[in-house]
Amino acid sequence: xxxxxxxxxxxxxxxxxxxxxxxxxxxxxxxxxxxxxxxxxxxxxxxxxxxxxxxxxxxxxxxxxxxxxxxxxxxxxxxxxxxxxxxxxxxxxxxxxxxxxxxxxxxxxxxxxxxxxxxxxxxxxxxxxxxxxxxxxxxxxxxxxxxxxxxxxxxxxxxxxxxxxxxxxxxxxxxxxxxxxxxxxxxxxxxxxxxxxxxxxxxxxxxxxxxxxxxxxxxxxxxxxxxxxxxxxxxxxxxxxxxxxxxxxxxxxxxxxxxxxxxxxxxxxxxxxxxxxxxxxxxxxxxxxxxxxxxxxxxxxxxxxxxxxxxxxxxxxxxxxxxxxxxxxxxxxxx
Amino acid sequence: xxxxxxxxxxxxxxxxxxxxxxxxxxxxxxxxxxxxxxxxxxxxxxxxxxxxxxxxxxxxxxxxxxxxxxxxxxxxxxxxxxxxxxxxxxxxxxxxxxxxxxxxxxxxxxxxxxxxxxxxxxxxxxxxxxxxxxxxxxxxxxxxxxxxxxxxxxxxxxxxxxxxxxxxxxxxxxxxxxxxxxxxxxxxxxxxxxxxxxxxxxxxxxxxxxxxxxxxxxxxxxxxxxxxxxxxxxxxxxxxxxxxxxxxxxxxxxxxxxxxxxxxxxxxxxxxxxxxxxxxxxxxxxxxxxxxxxxxxxxxxxxxxxxxxxxxxxxxxxxxxxxxxxxxxxxxxxx
Lengths: 335, 335
Prior knowledge:
Two copies of one chain form a homodimer.
Chain A (H helix, E strand, L loop, with lengths): L1 E5 L6 E5 L5 E4 L7 H6 L1 H16 L6 E2 L15 E3 L4 H10 L15 E3 L11 E3 L6 E2 L2 E7 L8 H5 L2 E8 L2 E2 L3 H6 L12 E2 L3 E2 L8 E2 L2 E2 L2 E6 L2 E7 L8 H8 L10 E3 L26 H12 L12 E6 L11 E7 L1
Parallel strand pairs in A: 5-18, 7-20
Antiparallel strand pairs in A: 1-2, 1-13, 2-3, 3-4, 5-6, 8-11, 9-10, 9-18, 10-12, 14-15, 16-17, 16-19, 19-20
Helix pairs in contact in A: 3-7
């Protein structure tokens, strides 16, 4: 089943979307919002799923779905925590800051608590007040949980995943070093994130969903050119079960918690940090990694961080080439 | 005006509470929840305030208010960010970890993004799975904001403060060093926080609310004995306007964002880290500070972190000795 929200009030209104993202049916007569569905999943899921099946069978009136009309599936959430499942990314961005990668990062997930009061749609512009902040995108997988009890194991945690989607976890690279230097994580350096237009139940992902990993290619384009074609199912050191269990060690998680994979990242076939797409590699899901690879190869980074007017596209396609979650497609605007 | 929530569903139901905390009137016929009031403050505030005045005049049916029956005013929130306004606290806990205090900490607020999906009531037990985690309380002031635009100045930010309250920001001290060592802030080491039974509008605080600081004594008792009698209006380096403006530099804040002061802390009259209450000082609002002072004086800390069966009380009284927010009064239980 695929779900989205159309703009209404602070939380949007729930719709079910057809598998090909071409059609939708209103679901807000069953439960007004996606958060409401997550709050009472066992009660409403069967009803919303039945609606979704009727939509697929064209048994009910249907309307044209346009990704550009959707807001974030959850325009605000009670929790957003981001992991670092792709250790290659962590290694590269730390190298850029002159920091070593501790061995423990391969066994003990690195996670941070992010702001969730303002989550934006995949087609909303990326609003940037100051280019000097060094704005970067980070293309990631996210899951949305139901209630997760404290102390859940990784295996148990997997069963609490309700939905899967994509996120652009925007980072202000030039604000990060001094903020991380203070030791308490990100506050100013992580502005609002943008979510994919559509979130999908794990069951509807078929073979692509493999034990808490999403085995499809994450496609990132910058200014109309391929920037990353990264295999999200490869080199994913921590599956979502492990990330959720890490988070739930000392506290329970409320329904609607969003957990991120961290920036998806692959090494090169030779074990190196890989190559840009333009050089025949798989490329990257954030600018910082490409800049680091450039600095290693040529002594200095060449690709600038995002500027006003830049455009960005983040998408994942199924085996038939159809968009799974819709595209995060946005331009960077001053504001 | 004083507001609280009684248990109902995931978000409680809104009530107005009399100034002396003895009586309440249901407000959920006006707007069901405190979050709902914060979402549409301009629309509902005049109606809820009118109800509060009728309650004060005994012009409507009133019911007995018992702090123990209230849940957290906001049982979950879209944002919880904690500051470190009392730099004496930061200096002491860093000393305990063997870390120096950078000079910038006196001018650049230290803040962290916390979990807000599970906020507990002031009379709910403090549930602790493992005493070896080194559980500590941190008694703090919090404010709840309305919508705050990105780039708000400190002065503008003050006008967006809707409510003031207290929090026990529970910390697991023995998990903090390794987690902060990873550089991304707190995840496992900050379990659910507990909020005071009642939140109060700044206007109802009278002279105690002074330019974004709360000038009253924060009273902390541990196992029935005074542990801290700290002046929250003194040595507060960053008022709430400064903390909110820091947070809003790169992003807007959604209505219902909770911002904390960090652990309230005073130096001694001689500029030293102060003395425990038992030694004639003002004491502390967390165990870690007292342990550090003990370690400096005697070579090792004597006060243990919280154990199952310990009891805790955090309260603030007005000039007439009446409790302003009700008391956070809880015992530590295994679970």
